[in-house]
Amino acid sequence: MTDAQVIVGLEVHCQLDTQSKLFCGCSTDYRSDGPNTHVCPVCLGLPGSMPVLNKKAIEYAMRVAKALNCSVTDEAEFSRKNYFYPDLDKAYQITQYDKPLAKGGYVEIEADEGSGGKCVQITRIHVEEDPGRLVHMGNAERGRYSLVDYNRAGIPLIEIVSEPDMRSPKEARKFLNKLRATLEYLGVFDSEKEGSLRVDANISIAGSERVEVKNISSYKGVEKALTFEVTRQKNLLRRGRTVKRETRHFLEARGITQSARSKEQEHDYRYFPEPDLRPVNVQSWVAGIVLPELPDARRERFMAQYGCSANHARTLTGELRLANFYEHVVASGQKGLFTLAATWIADTLIGELNYRNMTIDTVQAAPFKKLLEHIQGDECTDKSGVEVLRVMLDTIKQGLPYETPLAILDRLNLRKVSVNITRPFAYGITLKSGVEPNPIMKALSEVLTEQPRAVEDFRKGKKEAFNFLIGHVMKKTRGRADPKELNRLLVEALKNREA
Ligand SMILES: [Zn+2]
Question: Which residues contact residue 472 at a Cβ distance below 8 angstroms, ignoring those fewer than 6 apart?
């Protein structure tokens, strides 16, 4: 629900997915390597070293600016932001201050009330270098010492600053999701990389001071931190107290925000133009930048080309990898597969993946498509299909040898059993020893014998008794019976018993 009194603005830091750092040739692929192995005199800030601007990073940032409908500046200038902290080896960060790369764009999101879209204005986008990373031994407050790793120092970042246009934590999440999808579609950002996104949030209740919540490092964290802050600020006001203007930290593990020590709030950054880098005339590049298909366009296309419902199209295109997966599955498939695949991916697969903490990257399109074809070909019920899917995902997660969906169906004895006998109810009665009976008919016959009271109740007109009996047959056949067919058989069997 939208709360008109809540006002949220975000500052989003995203690492640009370039091969090398912003001002040197060091590789950005540092995550699986030891600390301080991706460093050089430039990103270590050694005296006499000179920064050289990475053209790719500026191009990536301009793609973002264009996709977010910003106007790009004529000349982008870099500035030094001076502060003293161990994560910053040079004691200044090269960033942009009064001449950012781009200003004044917007991101369209779905409004809370479900009544179409709403625009979140973008104030500015600027490029800067990431500082190093501190690793605290123990916790930050009471640890014995901290280690510093400069592998991250100099990784290109963009900071995207929004206007305070969001009216609830949920809207903030939608804004971030849309932003993430857009950046991924642009091929400039990889949300799966640890620490690739960090958010500072400004939040206030109308008429009160605003609070800045620093360094939220996950998508889920943003909504959690904001929800906590809304409650905290509202409680203060309800008790007749005032909200203090301050900076707070989000403690993700505890789901709370905590007042930051005041010495961290008082900054005098003394910005001045970076003397080692000349202003860049970027305006001339902008025209040459061609944008790929973006999330909104792809959503429209999914509805037009595959007949996806609006909701399915939104879910499927909300993440680049998911959208690609869907198109792999339906590629060269029949039309009937389009809706089936959309339903299975959006309504089942995503949930099963989340439950296992797996990403869509780990799933291959071909076997998933095979499973859908078995369902389509009436070889298994939807219920059995889910069971097979779960086995498939568990197999991947545990690194077990690959098994085809059909092999799993057979191993678990989940293939749909069809009953094509003219007088099926008679089957149970004429059961001969040594003959393998049809399992559904066998179950049906057993249930009718075992549940005389339910049969009696049904005869007396109790409709629930019918479902009760169906439930028992399903249990015995472990969901392999086609529900429609079973209904028909049970009606027939009950009629026959009466006769
Ligand atoms: Zn370097």
Answer: 447, 450, 451
